[in-house]
Amino acid sequence: MEIKGIQKLNTVAIFFDIPSQECIDRVRQRTNHPTLPSDRAAKAVASFSKLMSSPQTSEGFSRVFTLKNTSDEEKIIKLLLEKTK
């Protein structure tokens, strides 16, 4: 990705492709959320789910990582940390 006056950067995108039901369950477990009461979780997740699309390298990312579950998170973090050494 290029920004005027700054050297070219390797930029990665991390896309969380988590099943909608898991997201709904997570929202419902949150108590006292300031903007999303648990009784509106399903509607909010469904709305966002319709709008979501995976980022593409054509958008300027060097690489796109798609996480399908929480165990993927640790793998990606380890991989990215190794790349920065």
Describe the structure.
- It is built from three helices and two strands, in the order E-H-H-E-H.
- By secondary structure, the protein is of the alpha+beta class.
- The chain has one domain.
- A two-stranded parallel ribbon has the order 1-2.
- Helix 1 packs antiparallel against helix 2.
- The longest helix is centred in the C-terminal third of the chain and has 14 residues.
- The mean pLDDT is 84.
What is the radius of gyration? 17 Å
Alpha carbon gap, first and last residue = 21 Å
The number of helices is 3
Give the overall shape. Answer: elongated
Low-confidence stretches: none
Mean pLDDT: 84
The residue fraction in helices comes out at: 40-55%
Q: How large is the share of residues in beta strands? A: 5-15%
Q: Any idea how many domains?
A: 1
Class by SSE composition: alpha+beta
Task: Give, in spatial order, the strands making up the sheet with the most strands.
Answer: 1-2
Number of strands: 2
Main β sheet profile? 2 strands, parallel
Helices and strands, in order, run as EHHEH
Properties at a glance:
85 residues, two-stranded parallel ribbon, alpha+beta, 12% strand, 3 helices
Spell out the blueprint of helices and strands.
Layout: E1 12-16, H1 20-29, H2 41-51, E2 63-67, H3 70-83
Helix pairs in contact: 1-2
Provide a brief overview of the structure.
With 85 residues, this protein is an alpha+beta fold.
